[in-house]
Structures are given as C-alpha cells and as structure tokens.
Amino acid sequence: MTNKNIKILLVDDEPDILEIVGFHLQKEGYQIFKAKNGKEAVEKSKAFEPHLILLDIMMPEMDGIEACEKIRNLKGFENVIIAFFTARGEDYSQVAGFDAGADDYITKPVKPKVLVSKVKALLRRLKNEDKKEKRILELGDIIINKDEYFVEKKGVKIVLPRKEFELLSLLANTPNKVFNRDVILNTVWGRDVIVGGRTIDVHIRKLREKIGDEYIKTIKGVGYKFVN
To answer: Domain check: are 99 and 148 in the same one?
Structure first.
C-alpha cells in the first residue's frame, strides 16, 4: 500500500495543531482528514474509513477516550490504528487510553520529523491487512480455514461451533494484538444481541480446551490476544 492510498484522520480542538500536523503528513503523500472534536471524529471515521487516527484526549462535546471507544466499536473498525496525540502524559490517562482501545500514545509537543517517523512506524502495522484478506490463516501448528469453517492443528481437523470459530478468527487475524472485551462482543455477537461478559470467558475456555492453552493469552482487565 502506497502513501497516497493511506487515509489519516487528525482529531484536535486546536486549529494550529491540525494545520501543522496535517501539513507535514500531507508532504509525505498521505490523505489527510480533520476533525475538531470527538463527535466529529466518529462521524468522519464512518465517512472516510481512515487507516490511522491521531486523537487528542481533552476536547469539547466528546473527549478522545469516549470517541476512541465509539470508533473501536464500529463494525469493521476493529483493526484501524488509533494513537492518542495529547499533551497529557500522566499514567492514568495512558491506561484509560489503552483500555478504550488505543494502539499507541504520542505525547505533545513533538518535533515534526519525529511525529512523521512515529506515524510511519504505526503504519507498518498495515502489513497485517494482507492477513485480514486471507481465507486461510497459518499460524504455527494452527491452520484456520474460513471457507470451510474448520481449524486444523498438527494435521488434525477440529470443528468448532460458529461463535467459537468467529472468536478465534478475530483474534488470530492480528496476532499479538490485544482485543478488549467490548470489541470482541460487538464483533462476534453484534451490538443488537445482549450477552454477558461471561459469554466471552466461556468461549475462550472452550477454545483453550480444543486448541491448547498456549495460543490465547488473557490481558487482565482488558481482553485477550492470540499469541503466535
């Protein structure tokens, strides 16, 4: 994927920040979209489907934490890269950001060249887009066949119930990425279906019984990830 095909959404209530950051990223060839608050960020995310979102925390109407949660819960936005870009560097705000579904944290002020380098580093994760499109995932001893709806481990086929299969596929699509519980519930079960948090735990336990404990790791207080 070339830079001209990559869409970046900048979200900040300070016009000068939007202008300066937007200018330097446009020089790199990226498509730049801007929003001045969290509410507008959600709307523009739906409209433009960015690959990367740089999101301030302290904003009017809707702060960055709430906006991140809403964007992360949108259908198809499980793998969008979200980085908080804010002057708040305290530990508690970083924890809140990661709990909301952020991938990274960039603290202001930052020199333009450093910011561009950080953006390039974040966008390297787009290489996982190829894995997203694959109908057959090969991860160590595990093969996940999405067309025929089965899992194979060391040559032995394992037939999983639909929700277990979809849960495993979601985690395995992006190995080592932590998926929080809300994203898992909304992606696998959908926002229109009311299920309890224990539902995820039960399905994870069943998956571990069938494919092994070593593949799915619990991130306490956050969610789960597939370890490759």
So the answer is: no
Contact yes or no for 35/127 (Cβ under 8 A): no
- Split into its structural domains, the chain has a count of 2
State the pairing for strand pair 150-153/142-145: antiparallel
Hey, how many other C-beta atoms are within 10 angstroms of the C-beta on 219? Answer: 12
Instruction: Give the span between the Cα atoms of 100 and 64, in whole angstroms.
Output: 9
CA distance 7 to 33: 7
Digit-coded pLDDT (tens) for 189-211: 875 555 666 888 999 999 999 99
Supply the pTM of this predicted model: 0.58
Q: Tell me, what's the pLDDT at 44? A: 96
Q: Are residues 10 and 94 in the same domain?
A: yes
Token readout for 79 is 């793998």
59 Cβ partners below 8 Å, 6+ apart? 11, 12, 13, 36, 37, 38, 67
Q: Which residues pair with 218 in a beta bridge?
A: 224
Say how far apart CA 206 and CA 194 lie, in whole Å.
20
| 3-state DSSP assignment of residue 100 | coil
